[in-house]
Amino acid sequence: MTETLTDAAPRQLRMRPPRHLVAPRAIWYWTARALAGWIVVLAIEVFYLILASDDGLSSWHVAALVATIVAAAVHLVVMPRWRYRVHRWEATAHAVYTQAGWFSQQRRIAPISRIQTVDTERGPLEQLFGLSNVTVTTASAAGPLKIHGLDRDDAQKLVDELSVAIESTRGDAT
Amino acid sequence: MTVLAPPEGWRRLDPKMLMVHPVREVGRALPVLVGILLAGSGTGRGGLWGLFGTGVMVSIGVLRWFTTTYRVAAEQVQVRRGILRRQVLTVSLDRVRTVDVSASALHRVLGLVRLTVGTGLSDRKSDSALRLDGLSEADAARLRDELMGRRAAEADAAPAEAKPQETDLASLRPSWVAYGPFTLSGVLTVGVILGFAWRVISETHVDPRELGPVTAGYAELLAVPRWLAFVGVPVALLVAVGFASMVGYVLSFWAFRLVRLAGGNLQVSRGLISTRTTTIEERRLRGVELSEPLLLRAVNGARCIAIATGLRVGRGSERGGTLLLPPAPGGEARRVAAAVLGVSEPVTAPLVRHGPRALRRRYTRLLALCVPAIAALLVLWWLAVLPAWAWQASLLVLPLGAAVAYDRYRALGHALVGRVLVASRGSLVRRRYMLACDGIIGWNVNQSFFQRRAGLATLVATTAAGRQQYAVQDVPLDEAVRVADRAVPGLLTPFLVAVSETL
User: Fold this and answer.
1) Among A47, B181, B320, B366, fewest CB within 10 Å belongs to which?
2) Which of B255, B140, B277 is nearest to B268 (CA)?
3) How far apart (Å, rounded) are the C-alpha atoms in residues B478 and B456?
4) Is A164 touching B (CB cutoff 8 A)?
């Protein structure tokens, strides 16, 4: 009754990534968001350096500052581009499929029939870049599907499509 | 406004509940009262304010009886309550997933119970939970039948049998109490007792050093050889915790009974002094979890937990009412799991192992955790902050961790048995989930950078029941896709492509 690994040999399948990329502007949105975080860290370090400079510049502090700047630069260049290549989404008549992350990646699939809510949200930074994110929740508290960095119009179109698809299914989605 | 007679169709709590709140509030104020009795008025204002507060709470309790009414009408259950802020809670009957009837010692003396309705959504916030505290036993039984029995009654319209047919799935055997010490629940009990003692001491302003027996006992402890004290005190503490665990086991699980009611619903009842009866609707049951904490596993014991929508599993799953079997012999736990599922294969089936890459990952994760810690201790020793034995002792973590890592690998496994997804993981608490595929409402495939390099993935089945997510950890990616595809046919199909042979 139990299946074993060897059963799978004749017909091996692979999960392909979702079809659609998010808006290319998302790269700059992610850069800006990460930059805001790094600026806080750098500000604290510079502030500390100025305070401590009374008793001469400590080489440890300067080294830490330089290391932070290098790490920030690498992160700001690599992360958004890596993210852009990973973040993908696809909605069919029966399921929503998303892929997100960069270093750690998640693929999430939810059948349309189990979707409970579809929300769209725009933070201040996202508004600046004309972006929108869509959150699809199911009855499970684990793992809502989030699509970040969608073009505003695309997001609205997706929400409308999903709303229509959900209306045609019935049940309490548990 | 009529005060005593509830409006048409609405029902009230039992008048005897007027006794519950005053007595409970007095009980809560007991340390203060003891303080006043023992130390005279020496406690000053604080104690008096405490008493005043108690008085206020008593009055609120009395008002609560006047303001709380409930009714079952038009496919809905409604509760009206609140003194200053009136609230009407309405739950549609087909959203009722569980009914929980519990009674504290005080409730039982008065013949009262507290009834809680689990709806899956509202129970996330305890504030909005549908709860009626202070129903008579007869009223509660009637309400429970109205809430849960309805569909069962619809199913067999012919009232052939006046008495419903129940199947006994499990009941407590006194010998199971021996598993009590291996649950370590006594640690909490001993803590609570010490806490209460400390509070009494601080309220009465008695210096324990001035008490005769304490001083004498301390002097005796100093008199015995040092090694004996070093061995004796932990042993005494261990015995105390073990004893408290056994007492706790008896208090919580005495008269434990798991029955399948006539309509198919499961009913768990237990408790020596405080009692609790949970009814789980059958169609909300999505599976069973077998859990074996390390100590319990050492004596071949296990627990059974229900995976049901509307019943969350969290810290202290006993509190959540999801427990299907208290710590008991492993064989018994597996028998109960099979009986609840209705099939025995998911419980007994051998699992597919996750292979050498998963094993390697267990060890690398151990090293990633331990090596930086040991390195930090080494640096601190080098900087002359810590003595050398600190990092030398920390090396002991490596063999211990390796043992845990290997045990974690041995626990890993999964299988698809019929329409049930079975997954197992964990060393300190080994769990075997048996989740009905119908309850799976989505998949998450998580891969860290290192998992991608090893070709592994953590496949997470999301569900509205129990823990909300059940993971198959570090399974080869192609196997994860295969399992997900077979467990929920059709869902993944549009996103799958065949692997070409040349790759």
Assistant:
1) A47
2) B277
3) 9
4) no
The answer, for A4 touching chain B at a CB cutoff of 8 Å, is yes
Average pLDDT over residues B71-94: 81
Which residues does residue B417 pair with via DSSP β-bridges, in sequence order? B420
Assign 3-state DSSP to chain A and report helix, strand, coil percentages, each to 5.
Answer: 50, 25, 25
Of the given ranges (B58-72, B254-268, B459-473), which has the lowest mean pLDDT? B58-72
8 Å CB contact of B352 and A3: yes
B132-176 confidence digits (pLDDT tens) = 888 888 889 888 888 886 555 554 444 444 445 788 899 999 999
pLDDT tens column, A129-170:
999 999 998 888 887 899 999 999 999 999 998 988 888 775
Q: A143 — contact with chain B (CB < 8 Å)? A: yes
Express as a percent the part of chain B with pLDDT over 70: 83
Cβ contact (<8 Å) for A174 and B448? no
Q: Which residue blocks in B308-354 are alpha helix, DSSP H?
A: 317-320, 330-341, 345-348
Nearest to B480 by CA among B502, B455, B503: B455
The residue of B441, B446, B467, B503 whose CB has the most chain A CBs within 10 angstroms, and thus the best one to mutate to test that interface, is B441
Taking only Cα atoms into account, the Rg of chain B, rounded to an integer number of angstroms, comes to: 28
Write out chain A residues lying below 8 Å of B447, CB-based. Answer: 104-106
Q: Bigger pLDDT: B264 or B344?
A: B344
The answer to whether A140 contacts B443, with C-beta atoms less than 8 Å apart, is no
B101 vs chain A: nearest CA distance in angstroms? 25
Q: What stretches of B349-390 adopt beta strand conformation (E)?
A: none
Residues of B in contact with A92 (CB under 8 A): 494
A12 touches chain B (CB under 8 A): yes
Nearest neighbour of B468 by CB, restricted to A95, A97, A142: A142
Q: What is the pLDDT of residues A12-54, one digit of tens each?
A: 788 999 999 999 999 999 999 999 999 999 999 888 888 776 6
Q: Is A142's Cβ below 8 Å from some Cβ in B?
A: yes
Give φ, ψ of A86 to 5 degrees: -85, -45
Give the whole-angstrom CA distance, residue B213 versus residue B221.
Answer: 12
Put simply, the chain A residues between 96 and 125 with a CB less than 8 A from any chain B CB are 97, 103-111, 114
**Closest B-chain CA to A11:** B498
pLDDT at B5 over 70: no
Residue reference for tokens 């007679």: B5
Which residue out of B462, B468, B492, B499 would a mutagenesis test of the A interface target, given it has the greatest number of A Cβ atoms within 10 Å? Answer: B462
Query: DSSP characters for B424-481?
Result: EE-SSEEEEEEEEGGGEEEEEEEE-HHHHHHTEEEEEEEESBBTSEEEEEEEEHHHHH
Tell me how many residue pairs between chain A and chain B have CB atoms under 8 A apart: 131
**Domain A88-167 annotated CATH 3.40.1190.20:** no
Q: Give the percent of chain A with pLDDT over 70.
A: 87
Domain layout of chain A by residue ranges? 21-84, 88-167
Q: Using alpha carbons, select from B336, B360, B357, B355 the residue that is nearest to residue B347.
A: B336
Residues facing residue B442 across a β-bridge:
B462
List the single best residue of A107, A114, A140 to mutate versus B (max B Cβ within 10 A): A140
For tokens 């999801």, name the residue.
Answer: B322
- Domain spans, chain B: 11-155, 176-253, 355-495
ipTM associated with this complex: 0.86
